[in-house]
Amino acid sequence: MKATRIAVTGAAGQISYSLLFRLAAGDLLGPEQPMILQLLEIETMADAMAGVVMELKDCAFPLLQEVLVTADPYQAFADADLVFLIGARPRGPGMKRKDLLSANAGIFSEQGKALNEVAQKDAKVLVVGNPANTNALITIHNAPDMNPQNFAAMTRLDHNRALSLLAEKCHSPVMDVRRVSIWGNHSLTQFPDLFHAQVKGKPALEWVDMDWYENDFIPTVQNRGAEVIRLRGKSSAASAANAALDHMRDWVFGTPAGDWISAAVLSDGSYGIAGDIVYSFPMIAENGLLQIVQGLDINDFSRSRMKRTEQELLEERDAIKDLL
Ligand code: NAD
Ligand code: LMR
């Protein structure tokens, strides 16, 4: 069987330290599919990177055919089928994700150009590095020969946080919760939507009251990343790697019938959201394509929050317009 080429940037960082071992173990593509890992790191991390590669080899993963390490994105992305853009500075305590924009934006314009030149034309590219939505927009603009539908920014971690918090509140297993949505930016303005969510087939808002939803659940999901940083002193890593894996698995193999995921994609104007921003919507994946779930009723409560997070993305876009 032909090996899948998986490119991962920031490969010596925290998230990659969780992700790479799960990829190589077959958690993404299953127990039959061999892979080649193409790892991108900056030169100054060469020792740490070499240590991670040593550990990967020491696992003797049967599916791992080859590990390539480089500081050159054109080598890292050559013929890549699946791409995780993780390499970027994380925020520290007290910072907002958009404070990272000036530090990280340049990385994504360079990498977009490299993807455009050398990756498979139908490669699936997931942007994790923050601020993920606007970094994804930069990447898309710099890869004009690739279909914008091949790109997404990760809001799956927010989605998973929402699933887990709702399940806990309803004393139900996560598998009984469906149709939670994250709208907008992977930031404090994101809107976690329970109006369409179900627990054991019954509307979520019949299980919980509006006061809990508005004043507890929404701010908890919005602030979860900062809370992890406050408690751990570092930003989320294992849960981020898990979300990246969940996202890519569903993108490749499809979302379960009757349910959806959240992912940020280039807006096509659905739900009246401005075009040319990367906005999180409820999504289904089918035949390797992500599609926005259409036709949901949006009430005034939701609409005002969806507009607020849209506005923030428009401001972020304005701040990096030179890179588009
Ligand atoms: P980290 O600092 O541990 O690792 C980042 C790695 O990227 C470092 O090893 C660094 O050397 C490398 N890097 C920097 N510039 C690079 C470049 N040009 N090319 C290749 N590699 C480069 O950080 P982390 O905890 O792994 O987080 C990575 C990013 O993911 C951060 O921006 C973080 O905020 C973001 N993040 C996003 C989500 C999400 O839900 N979207 C969740 C968690 C973290
Ligand atoms: C998260 O949501 O955990 C990440 O985006 C890291 C952060 O800065 O919050």
Question: Can you describe what's shown?
Answer:
The protein is an alpha/beta fold and 324 residues long. It folds into 2 domains: 4-153, 3-Layer(aba) Sandwich (Rossmann fold); 156-323, L-2-Hydroxyisocaproate Dehydrogenase, Chain A, domain 2, CATH 3.90.110.10. The chain contains 10 helices and 14 strands. It has a 6-stranded parallel beta sheet with strand order 3-2-1-4-5-6, with helices on both faces. Strands 7-10-11 form a 3-stranded antiparallel beta sheet. A 3-stranded antiparallel beta sheet has the order 12-13-14. A hairpin with a 2-residue loop joins strand 13 and strand 14. Helix 1 packs across helix 9. It is globular, with a radius of gyration of 19 Å. It starts with a strand and ends in a 5-residue tail after the last helix. The model has no long low-confidence stretch (mean pLDDT 97). Bound molecules: nicotinamide-adenine-dinucleotide and (2S)-2-hydroxybutanedioic acid. The site of (2S)-2-hydroxybutanedioic acid has 10 residues, from helix 8.
Q: Tally the structural domains.
A: 2
Level of helix content? 40-55%
Rg from alpha-carbon coordinates: 19 Å
Shape: globular
Low-confidence stretches: none
Structure ligands: nicotinamide-adenine-dinucleotide, (2S)-2-hydroxybutanedioic acid
